[in-house]
From TrEMBL:
Residues 66-214 form the UBC core domain. It comes from Rhodnius neglectus. Transmembrane segments: none annotated. InterPro entries: Ub_conjugating_enzyme, UBC, UBQ-conjugating_enzyme/RWD. This is Putative ubiquitin-conjugating enzyme-related protein ft1 involved in programmed cell death. It comes from the Eukaryota.
Length: 278
C-alpha cells in the first residue's frame, strides 16, 4: 500500500510540474494578452477543443505578437545606433508605420527638414526591405519625383532578417543627403543637372529646402497621436525649456573611476591625469 501511495504521489507531483513548466514557458515567450483575451484562456480552449479542430487556425495571433517583439528589438537597435539629425517614432496605430523627420546639417541639402513615413511590410521580418516615402517633393537622384519614395532596393536588393536591420535603412536615408550618388537613380532630370549643371541643381535643391521649412509647421496628422508635430517658438511657452537646454553641461559618469593616460611622444614615460587634478 505504501509503495502504491508513493507512486501515486510521485505521478501527481510529476503531472503538476509538467503543467507548471508548460504555463511558465508560455508566459516567458509570449505576451499575456492576445487581442482582448488572455493567453492562458486561449491556450485552455486549444486544449479543450475537439480533435478535428485545426490548430493552425489559431497561429496568427501568436505570429502577430512575435512580429511585434521583433519590431521592438529593431527599435532598440536603432536607439543604440543613433543617427545624427534623425527623429523617428512608431505610429500610435500601427507598429509597421514609423514617422520620421530628418534635419540635414551640412552639404548641398544643409538646412533641409524632411518628413518621411517609414513603412514596414506585414510579413516582417520575412519580408522585402521597408519603404521610405517623403511627404514633400525633394529634388534628388535617388528619390522618385512623383511618388516621393526613396530607392532602397539598390542597396538592399535582397533583404535578410539575419543580416539586415531597420536602422541600416534609416542610416542610408540620412546618407543620401551627404553623399549624392547617381547610380540606380529614380529621378533622371536630377541626375542630368547634377552631372552637367551643378549650379542649377543647387538652385532646385534650395527651393526644396525652403519649402520643407515652410511646411514643417503646417503638416499635422490628427488621426495619429504619435505624429511628430512642430510649433513656432513662443517665448512665454518655450523660454524656460530653452534656457534649461542651453545651461546643461555634459556630465562625466563614474567620475571616481575616470582617468586619462598616454605616453609622451618620443619617450616611453607614461603620463596620466585624473579628473581631480587642476
Amino acid at each position: 500500500m505504501a509503495g502504491r501511495s508513493d507512486a501515486a504521489s510521485i505521478l501527481t507531483e510529476k503531472e503538476s510540474n509538467e503543467n507548471l513548466q508548460r504555463h511558465g514557458s508560455i508566459r516567458k515567450v509570449l505576451h499575456s494578452l492576445v487581442g482582448n483575451d488572455s493567453l492562458l484562456g486561449i491556450s485552455a480552449r486549444m486544449l479543450d477543443r475537439p480533435k478535428q479542430y485545426r490548430v493552425d487556425d489559431d497561429l496568427n495571433p501568436y505570429q502577430d505578437f512575435l512580429r511585434e517583439y521583433a519590431l521592438i528589438s529593431e527599435y532598440k537597435l536603432l536607439c543604440q545606433n543613433l543617427i545624427p539629425g534623425l527623429y523617428i517614432i512608431p505610429s500610435a496605430n500601427s507598429g509597421l508605420v514609423w514617422f520620421g523627420v530628418l534635419f540635414v546639417r551640412s552639404g548641398i541639402y544643409k538646412g533641409g527638414i524632411f518628413r518621411f513615413t517609414f513603412k514596414i511590410s506585414e510579413s516582417f521580418p520575412d519580408s522585402p526591405p521597408p519603404s521610405v516615402i517623403f511627404e514633400d517633393k525633394i529634388f534628388h537622384p535617388s528619390i522618385d519625383e512623383e511618388t516621393h519614395e526613396l530607392n532602397v532596393t539598390s542597396i538592399f536588393p535582397v533583404w535578410s532578417k539575419h543580416e539586415n536591420h531597420l536602422w541600416q535603412v534609416l542610416e542610408y536615408t540620412s546618407t543620401i543627403f551627404y553623399q549624392i550618388s547617381t547610380d540606380n537613380a529614380k529621378n533622371l532630370s536630377a541626375v542630368q543637372l547634377y552631372d552637367n549643371d551643378i549650379k542649377k541643381y543647387k538652385e532646385m535643391v534650395q527651393t526644396c529646402i525652403e519649402q520643407s521649412k515652410q511646411n514643417i509647421f503646417n503638416r499635422n496628422n490628427y488621426e495619429d497621436a504619435n505624429y511628430i508635430r512642430f510649433h513656432e517658438f513662443n517665448e512665454s511657452v518655450h523660454r524656460e525649456a530653452r534656457l534649461t537646454l542651453l545651461s546643461e553641461e555634459p556630465k562625466m559618469k563614474n567620475i571616481s573611476k575616470c582617468a586619462l593616460s598616454w605616453v609622451k611622444e618620443g619617450t616611453l614615460k607614461p603620463c596620466s591625469l585624473t579628473p581631480y587634478n587642476s
